[in-house]
Amino acid sequence: MAVKSLNSIRRNFSPWTDPAAKPYIQFENVTKQFGDFTAVNNLSLTIYEREFYALLGASGCGKSTLLRMLAGFDEPTSGRILLDGQDLRGVPPHKRPVNMMFQSYALFPHMTVEKNIAFGLKQEGMASADIAKRVAEMLKLVKLEQFAKRKPHQLSGGQRQRVALARSVAKRPKVLLLDEPLGALDKKLREETQFELMDLQQDLGLTFVVVTHDQEEAMTMADRIAILDKGEVMQVATPQEIYEAPGSRFVANFVGSMNLFEGEVTRRDETSADIQIGPDLLIRTVNPGNSERKAGVNYAVRPEKIRVSSKKPEETGVNSAQGEIFDIAYLGDVTNYNVKLDDGRIVKATVINSNRLAEDPLTWGDRAWISFKPDAGIVLTR
Amino acid sequence: MNGGGWSRFNIASVTAGFAFLYLPIVLLIIYSFNASRLVTVWAGFSTQWYVTLWHNQALLDAAWVTLRVGLVSATAATVLGTMAALALTRYTRFRGRLLFSGMVFAPLVMPEVITGLSLLLLFVALGVDRGMMTVTLAHITFSMCFVAVVVQSRLLTFDRSLEEAAMDLGATPVKTFFAITLPVIAPAIISGWMLAFTLSLDDLVIASFTSGPGATTLPMKIYSQVRLGVTPEINAICTILIAIVATGVLIASVVNKRREVQRRRDEQAAQRT
């Protein structure tokens, strides 16, 4: 598959492609109900050691419940959760080798930064000299050495986040759970911290499971992302795969922005397919997908893969259509166009402003052509 | 209107309000320094009633009883009230919760006469000799619900993730309670204790029903003496009580205020770094 070659951009780490790799955390047919509400519905997931795994979904999709079940604050109504082969049912939170970083940070307000970080180590019965050493190490790691004696309310939001992080990794847990770890930080700080988290995970060799509703955050940090909706897994894949080869219309729409053309497959072979979208648009794609379905399929193509031009493309008849500029949003780095095709369909197109002044200036109401390459999109049958 | 200035109406209403509240107390304090035995006739300044008070063994004994009853009952009521508050906020789904919370809070609105009388009937039925113990028990009964209310309101805003974080870091539930929950809600528990202590000091009705010989509390003593005529001695002891309470309130509010100011300053400083 063409998508495969996109994968290992960040690092050569993909145990999920290796059938011999041993799963580290397994959710097996886990269901969680709160009264009549089903938060998690017969869900199965596999997470590997040292993986940076993101649970991505809108609020109420069950992602936090999954994390809380892993930490031991909630027990599954049915199904099993295994950690390193051990069934976690009935193991109370204080006996689980996982630590969690809370969304609210949950720093103990009556303790100094030092004491907060030392808390977990004390519970282990570690010798006080060792505790002091480890605490110093952690403070250095999160660059808060001079704040050791402060109380949480004497720290800024970013500093509190670091203390929470230091406290949760101080015990060297097998797995670190992060519940919206960067949610309370402002945009700039969030971007810096994302990379710090990734470095930390690499350096300490931990398994990270992070819950987030921010797709950019998940895309930046995670090795794999699980997209959740209404307590079910919609897709688990690398960020590149999720973006370039979403498995369903839901995922395609959820992550980033997407044009979906519904039509009928008129021809298909191993390497290509033709899809007729209305009377005017014929799409020829080199990603035919592997479904036999013909009617009611969707062709999904990202806005940035669509070209907009006032000039007629070299090849017309396939993968191109004519319309008029309906809306323009200039964002500096890119310009978003909404093009209204002659059959009334609205197509989103994103043009990167690689030159300061556009060579082909388009404005509201102009006639324009849209076109895309045969490998620009994929066929979705779900 | 001149913005935030004081209109004549404002000045008048504030004056009337304060006069209404404090004029009787001010009179009482002034007359405690009266040289005359007659309470309503001013005969010059004197501290003689404070001196005689010091030699009035009966009053001193009553004060000592009151203090002991107050300390013991406030402490016991704080423990019980905190436990009740925890049960009410933490276990929201147990059977009979509504009945339980109703029963915990009923004494708040129950007329004291009824509480006192029913306790008296109970003690008589059980054949318990009335004395300091029965007064203390009675005070625990009615003041624990006040503690429960104070502590419960704090627990409702308590961030449960603090406890989860502690357990997540390996603390057992019991350890979590003593290391995290208790210190965080301590201010509410302390104010609950102070409230219970004050209620016990103040109480006349319930104490009259449940006490026996040798366990006369200060309010009982004062009340019985007043029935024989108000003496400047009573004024003196009342002035001392007022002084104690006022000092306590003053210290508490100054400490609170300082802490708050310090906290705000810290938070501002933290945002700058």
Automatic annotation (TrEMBL), chain A:
The organism's superkingdom is given as: Bacteria
UniProt GO MF annotations = ABC-type putrescine transporter activity; ATP binding; ATP hydrolysis activity
Against InterPro entries, the record matches this protein to:
AAA+_ATPase, ABC_SmlMolc_Importer, ABC_transporter-like_ATP-bd, ABC_transporter-like_CS, Mo/tungstate-bd_C_term_dom, P-loop_NTPase, PotA-like, PotA_ATP-bd
Keywords, ordered alphabetically: ATP-binding, Cell inner membrane, Cell membrane, Membrane, Nucleotide-binding, Translocase, Transport
- Looking at the record, the residues that make up the ABC transporter domain are 25-255
Enzyme class at the top of the EC tree: translocase
The record's GO CC annotations read: ATP-binding cassette (ABC) transporter complex
Which E.C. number(s) belong to this protein? 7.6.2.11
Q: How does it assemble?
A: The complex is composed of two ATP-binding proteins (PotA), two transmembrane proteins (PotB and PotC) and a solute-binding protein (PotD).
List the protein's name. Spermidine/putrescine import ATP-binding protein PotA
UniProtKB/TrEMBL annotation, chain B:
Please report the record's description of how this protein sits within the membrane. Answer: Multi-pass membrane protein
Q: Does the keyword Ligase apply?
A: no
Provide GO CC annotations from the record: plasma membrane
Among its keywords, does the record have Lyase? no
- Name one process (GO BP) from the record: transmembrane transport
Pfam families reported in the protein's UniProt record: BPD_transp_1
Q: Which residues cross the membrane?
A: 12-33, 62-86, 98-126, 132-156, 177-199, 234-255
Which InterPro entries does the entry mention? Bact_Polyamine_Transport, MetI-like, MetI-like_sf
Subcellular localization is given as: Cell membrane
Keywords of the record, alphabetical order, are: Cell membrane, Membrane, Transmembrane, Transmembrane helix, Transport
Report domain ABC transmembrane type-1 positions: 63-252
Spell out the PANTHER family in the cross-references.
PUTRESCINE TRANSPORT SYSTEM PERMEASE PROTEIN POTI
The similarity comment for this entry is: Belongs to the binding-protein-dependent transport system permease family. CysTW subfamily.
- Put simply, this protein is called Putrescine ABC transporter permease PotI
